[in-house]
Design brief:
heterodimer; A: mainly alpha; B: 3 domains; globular
């Protein structure tokens, strides 16, 4: 403990400061990007008045949130109502600690990895911390003492528990082919410099399942049933105003950024890109690798916005069916197939092909079974055809 | 006092405070939250022992999954403030006193043993020396403890099938 050189202590502090601020600035950029890209996709302008291209719009929004009255309704459970936004925000901030955002920089003879903490259980840490985010949503919803909020919270907790499984199982295939560690840094390093060596091709079904589950975990469309505006006013944050409301939104964007960064690390080769990350000296290669990681994450974040305006929201029973009957079997099969083929053939190519083929087979079997078991819809009141859901049971 | 001891006292204190507030809060939601705090502090203690994997699993399984289900149930049933009353309450109190005495005896036994530097204390110092990685645990599970591991998985599978059967029957009765 006492023998740590001063350079490493200072560099850790600097890294923490940089990463936290990058995350906060990233949230602002995401708010701007979301509104501008949405506008572009819907053939309208979006905010373009404050600053060049409307870039200062998030600052204006932030100021407005700060100066709004911080209203606490009379009927809420006060301690939990105040705590809930923080309980959502803190896991989002803390999770970024183990994400490796670049190779390394050499300063004064010390090699400084571009990562706050390279811990042995990296990916488990991410899963553990993100699984806590649900408390902010659920407790905020409950403390609001409002039936729309509560429905949103209940939906969210059921959804997060269901999709967390896929999130965890989707990673196991990668872990089997990576050396004996769960460290995110090792996973990133072991993927080669070229796109065809990255994990997303070897584990294509797991990659798709993982990404879908991540959309659900971040409560983004098409999985934002917890705040479905048409049904629940604004879901779990209906009763929130001012900065507390803003904290809910910041947490959502932070979760998106961290989720994208983790996906890039796990599946998209981390900071590798055609050997470009090895160019330059010991300092420049680190900065270039960070740039590559940044661009990859940004592209993935764009996909988040893109999907939002491409897919309509699921109905609640569709959401549960999709999670349990399609994503989970695909993730489970990918584990079995990856393990079996890797032990028998020791070839990444065969594992990749086997994964895709087996996923196709599983999906078609499940779809076939569902079609066979669904009774032919009789032409009567549309109410009768809706499958009973957990929410019906509550009522 | 080094950093490790300070952290141990911190996590131990938080875990005790959480455990006490589980039973002293009158509202089930606050009790559940206190339990989560306790789980967290215990995860911290596991990290201090070098058992990172166990710490992560503690948070993922207990704090992340089981307690969410607890909250879900509490909210669904809309439980209000609970109190121990009536004839059943008196019987429960008698039971609680007996259990309390048993637990206190256990605690005292462990504390005395720890002071005499026997069983518990030596096991603790032995564990602190080894950093158990996920790799080590996996290797042990699939070699030395293969049979217990498989038996556990079979029990879990049985429970899983049982749940599905129970839920299915109820659903069919309704319709």
């Amino acid at each position: 403990m006492e023998n740590i050189p001063l350079v490493l202590i200072i560099s850790s502090l600097v890294k923490i400061l940089i990463v936290v601020h990058l995350l906060l600035i990233g949230v602002m950029i995401m708010i701007w990007a979301e509104r501008r890209v949405s506008g572009w996709m819907q053939d309208r302008l979006g905010p373009n008045r404050v600053g060049p291209q409307g870039l200062l719009q998030p600052v204006a929004d932030g100021l407005k949130f700060l100066f709004k009255e911080d209203l606490i309704p009379d009927h809420v459970d006060k301690p939990l109502y105040v705590m809930a936004p923080a309980m959502l925000l803190v896991p989002a901030l803390v999770a970024v600690a183990v994400v490796p955002f670049g190779s390394s920089i050499t300063v004064l003879g010390h090699e400084i990895p571009l990562q706050i903490a390279d811990i042995n259980i990296g990916i488990l840490y991410i899963l553990a911390i993100t699984s806590l985010g649900v408390y902010g949503v659920v407790l905020g919803a409950w403390a609001s003492n409002n039936k729309y909020s509560l429905l949103g919270g209940l939906r969210s907790s059921a959804q997060m528990i269901s999709y967390e499984l896929t999130l965890g199982l989707g990673i196991i295939g990668i872990l089997m082919l990576t050396g004996n560690t769960l460290s995110l840094r090792t996973i990133a390093i072991e993927q080669g410099a070229y796109p065809w060596q990255w994990n997303f091709l070897i584990h294509l079904p797991a990659f798709l399942a993982f990404t879908t589950a991540m959309f659900a975990e971040t409560n983004r469309l098409p999985f934002d049933l917890a705040e479905a505006e048409q049904e629940l006013v604004a879901g779990y944050h209906t009763e929130y105003s001012s900065m507390k409301f803003a904290m809910f939104f910041m947490a959502e964007y932070m979760n998106m950024i961290v989720g994208s960064a983790v996906t890039v690390t796990l599946f998209l080769g981390g900071w590798h890109f055609f050997g470009l990350e090895n160019m330059g000296g010991p300092v420049w290669s680190g900065i270039i690798s960070f740039g590559i990681f940044f661009v990859k994450t940004a592209i993935f974040l764009f996909v988040f916005i893109w999907v939002r305006w491409t897919l309509p929201r699921f109905r609640y029973d569709q959401l549960m069916n999709f999670g349990w009957k399609f994503l989970l079997p695909v993730a489970l099969t990918s584990i079995v197939v990856t393990g079996t083929l890797w032990i028998t053939t020791n070839s990444r190519l065969i594992v990749g092909i086997g994964n895709v083929v087996s996923a196709f087979i599983v999906v078609s079997i499940v779809a076939g079974l569902l079609v066979m078991r669904t009774p032919k819809p009789a032409i009567q009141d549309s109410d009768d055809r809706l499958t009973p859901t957990a929410l019906d049971a509550i009522e | 006092m080094n950093a490790e001891q300070i952290l141990f006292i911190l996590f131990g204190a938080v875990s005790l405070i959480g455990a006490i507030s589980v039973i002293s809060f009158r509202h089930p939601i606050y009790s559940a939250l206190s339990l989560i705090v306790t789980f967290f502090a215990q995860a911290g203690l596991f990290v201090l022992l070098g058992a990172h994997f166990v710490a992560a699993v503690q948070v993922i399984v207990y704090a992340g999954a089981i307690m969410v289900l607890f909250l879900f149930v509490i909210m669904l049933l809309n439980l209000e403030t609970l109190s121990v009353q009536g004839a059943i309450g008196r019987k429960l109190k008698g039971l609680a006193i007996i259990l309390g005495i048993l637990f206190a005896a256990e605690g005292i036994y462990i504390a005395v043993n720890a002071l005499n530097d026997t069983a518990v204390a030596s096991a603790e110092s032995g564990a602190a020396a080894v950093t158990t990685t996920t790799y080590d645990i996996g290797e042990l599970l699939f070699s030395k403890y293969l049979l217990p591991f498989e038996v556990t998985s079979l029990i879990l599978l049985a429970a899983l099938i049982g749940v599905i059967v129970l839920v299915k029957r109820e659903g069919q009765e309704e319709s």
